[in-house]
Write a structure and sequence with these properties.
3 copies of one chain form a homotrimer. In chain A, the strands form 4 sheets. Chain A has a 7-stranded antiparallel beta sheet with strand order 11-17-16-15-14-13-12. A 4-stranded antiparallel beta sheet of chain A has the order 5-6-7-8, with no helix packed on it. In chain A, strands 1-10-9 form a 3-stranded antiparallel beta sheet, with no helix packed on it. In chain A, helix 1 runs antiparallel to helix 6. Chain A folds into 2 domains: 7-119, 3-layer Sandwich (Rieske Iron-sulfur Protein); 132-337, Alpha-Beta Complex (Naphthalene 1,2-dioxygenase Alpha Subunit, Chain A, domain 1), CATH 3.90.380. In chain A, a hairpin with a 2-residue loop joins strand 12 (176-180) and strand 13. Chain A is of the alpha+beta class and 351 residues long. The radius of gyration of chain A is 22 Å and the shape is globular. Chain A has helices at 144-152, 157-160, 168-172, 197-205, 281-311, 324-350; strands at 7-11, 21-25, 28-34, 40-44, 58-60, 63-65, 72-73, 79-81, 98-101, 104-108, 132-140, 176-180, 183-193, 214-223, 227-236, 249-262, 265-274. Chains in contact: A-B, A-C, B-C. The interface between A and B is medium-sized, with 23 and 26 residues. Chains A, B, C: This is Rieske 2Fe-2S domain-containing protein. Chains A, B, C: Keywords: 2Fe-2S, Iron, Iron-sulfur, Metal-binding, Oxidoreductase. Chains A, B, C: Residues 7-107 form the Rieske domain.
């Protein structure tokens, strides 16, 4: 169960560079492509002629051409032409609202009349020359909410990421969870500790001593349907921690867009935005590589957890203080799901 | 759904050379082998002793010996002997009518009392020294009718086979479909065009200039249950096209026997019969290799189309003029299926 | 269907050396590990916190630590601690009776109150310096009873193992099956034959001539739920066969513990115990390697047979004299299953 009247990250621009991309999102099979003037478009991945996936075709003059018999599909889901055929009476396929913004392609899989681009989240670090961003995509076989849980409870770093960002001090510092409207914030502060390897490297990357005690913070922010932005960083101890002046700290924003493919699989867009040395592309690449390795450590755990939960479907899980972020996030998701169900029931009655 | 009271190509003789072959055809698990005097035989792939597949065994003195405990099976589905056992009371397994003809092994998976070898199609090019044949086998995950559609609408060559036999002139020339009893014929003629790479090579192979305009033809002939023979060729332009004298043309017959394995998978026997340079085995090999590469280009499209059709089970597909061959072929198939259903109902009443 | 109130071999000690082992046995997902003082323990492979498999974690101070968020599980299925948490109210998970004996870890997947370690079979060759043992583990996709059938009817050696231990004389000598309480014994004796390659090597390994006629024996002993011990050997012909003095024979015990994973898959622990040259580790390794190759020859046959039986679910199989061992073994298994069903019904009534 996932909200459909919402914007999900569907892909990154490079994925539709010169060719269409077929991708299932919220159980909808969609093909993404660049239509006229480079505008992004998304339609069902189904040719109305003989049912071939349009994603096996190519783009010509802004039209998506079926690779089987040449039917040309427009960005509105209407066939624009086909060699030797009159296409006026051809059935349309579904077109999906789609927007390119902040370096991502966003798609709306629900009621198209409600698709307001203003609902796409503001990302203050995107399109800002003081910030750099690098990231990647993982295809993971788990319910999107398990990934939200994972990201809202960083206690797992001590175990899953013991050699990079994990350290015992994380689980020793109790987190605090607050709900602010549709936002859930789980924060954890650790003072006067030694920096783990990843943060030592970040300190060096920011031209700071890496062998002195630091204050460390993790501020996880969930917003629906399944975005998690995490402010993370370290400052030389006693300089103010999270509020320390820039010259004493290395910090960044862990960026997580979790897009359901099916009930038990996701497209996981992960990355990191930083506001130090933003022009240093080599540093961006190095951070992405390091983050990619660390985030890959979660995948086996999440997929194994998912398989276990399917087998033990009746078991209740614990909801400890460390699970507060995930628990609150699920409450918001549940409320949105209920609203969607009510709203579509209303529509059914009205029509 | 496929007709069962009909002959399907099961395998080629080399596939049962020295060992049995297990193959599922029309959902029947069958083992093919050479019985006494090299006569081909086909029985259920199930040993009545402990259920092992007989195809894991071997042939000895014309009997199929189970590779688990040595039960010997005859070509009639009756156990002929077993070490240390009296076999008279052993249950029989099903034997299938099977005929070796025209370089193929043909099997009848329906009512054996109706299996008339005279119903095996005549192939004038087989067993004829003026003709050469080369071909291969692909295992494809699609409904056999999707492959019939594919072969009866060669418009797809422009897209799927753009670099070999495809050219824009194909889709610009409207095909014509005729039904002649149980035969469906879809023809397309293109005049004064340049030959695509495959046909340039064929012209050279026939000692003809390959850089002059040609007339090209494609005459697809469907006969039930799922055989498609396609007369294809080019002639130097203005020499009479399809009817041009042999010294001005290169032509051949594309041979397609499509045998259902299950509702959504097939054994696809493809090949080419030609009547020029029939003794040139190297040419035969070269053509087979080229055809194999071209025909492999269809597989991903057909399997993707099949998956799409299973997901969008309720969608109606278009039936355009280019689809006429496939549409008419399905009508004939549907009639045969209906006749089979009626006939077996009659049998049920009578018995 | 498999008895659950019984001891199954779960794993060998090396498999839980320094790390936990997750393994499904009788449809139960279990994690095995060494708890305090090296005592073996087995609990459900499910962390009560968030459902992660505990087998992805590690052992610390005899506690099984979840690799996701650090919950510590004791060998009794009760959470012993968790960083920053009070664990008293945490739900327990199931603990399984488990015993390390005879070089194997044994688990009881049924009613724990009935788990009597004295019911673990005595293995006279284990823990005995006059004997050596070597073996391995195969994961096979078949019903455990098909493997019992296989081992109680060695006729198959003539076919499946033709190049190593098979020989026509096996199927020419009729076996005899006796039932002795819960034990089924199938014996076969062959006199004055030539030794097949495996036994020639064993004769040489025992410093005996390998090119003289031998007497050969195979005595298969089934005990429930699914253990099969086979006394096998050859003696120089005329020296007394099975009863010949040690200096004229090479013999050993084929050891088979067949542990159901699911209804159609098993953990197959195979090996060989011998009482000649027991200190010769190189010989042990050589025998294990040879046996491993021979026993691997059965797997394709058994998995193919299993698939066939699932497809032909309604067919009755033959029960010949050679099948007597398997047939009697199934009778005992069926009786045990019936007793278990009755006993649990009684319990239900009583409670």
């Amino acid at each position: 169960m996932f909200p459909k009247n919402t914007w999900y990250v569907a892909c990154t621009p490079d994925e539709i560079d010169g060719k269409p991309l077929g991708r299932t999102i919220c159980n909808e099979q969609i093909v993404f492509f660049r239509a006229e003037q480079g505008k992004v478009a998304a339609v069902e991945d189904f040719c109305p002629h003989r049912g071939a996936p349009l994603s096996l075709g190519f783009v010509r003059n802004g039209q998506l051409v079926c690779g089987y018999h040449g039917l040309e599909m427009g960005c509105d889901g209407k066939c624009s032409s086909m060699p030797g055929q009159r296409v006026r009476g051809f059935p349309s396929i579904r077109a999906y609202p789609v927007v390119e913004r902040h370096g991502f392609i966003w798609v709306w899989t629900g009621d198209a009349t409600l698709a307001d681009p203003d609902k796409i989240p503001e990302l203050h670090w995107a399109n800002n020359p003081d910030w750099a961003y690098g990231g990647g995509l993982y295809h993971v076989q788990c319910d999107y909410r398990l990934m939200v849980d994972n990201l809202m409870d960083l206690t797992h770093e001590t175990y899953v990421h013991a050699s990079s960002i994990g350290q015992p001090e994380i689980e020793e510092a109790a987190p605090e969870t607050k709900v602010n409207g549709d936002e859930v914030i789980t924060s954890r502060y650790m003072e006067n500790i030694s920096a783990p390897p990843f943060w030592q490297a970040a300190l060096r990357g920011n031209n700071l001593a890496d062998d002195v005690p630091v204050d460390r913070w993790q501020i996880c922010r969930f917003t629906p349907p399944s975005h998690v932005m995490i402010e993370v960083g370290v400052a030389h101890a006693g300089k103010g921690g999270y509020d320390a002046p820039a010259e004493f700290k290395a910090s960044s924003i862990v960026v997580d867009f979790i897009t359901p493919e099916t009930e038990t699989s996701i497209w996981y867009f992960w990355g990191m935005a930083r506001n130090f040395n933003p022009q240093d592309q080599a540093l961006t690449d190095r951070i992405r590589e390091g983050q990619g390795k660390i985030f890959a450590e979660d995948l086996d755990m999440l997929e194994s957890q998912q398989r276990n939960l399917l087998k033990y479907a009746d078991r209740q899980l614990l909801k400890l203080n460390i699970d507060g972020g995930g628990v609150q996030a699920r409450r918001i998701i549940d409320r949105l799901l209920k609203e969607e169900a009510t709203s579509s029931a209303d529509t059914a009655v009205a029509s």
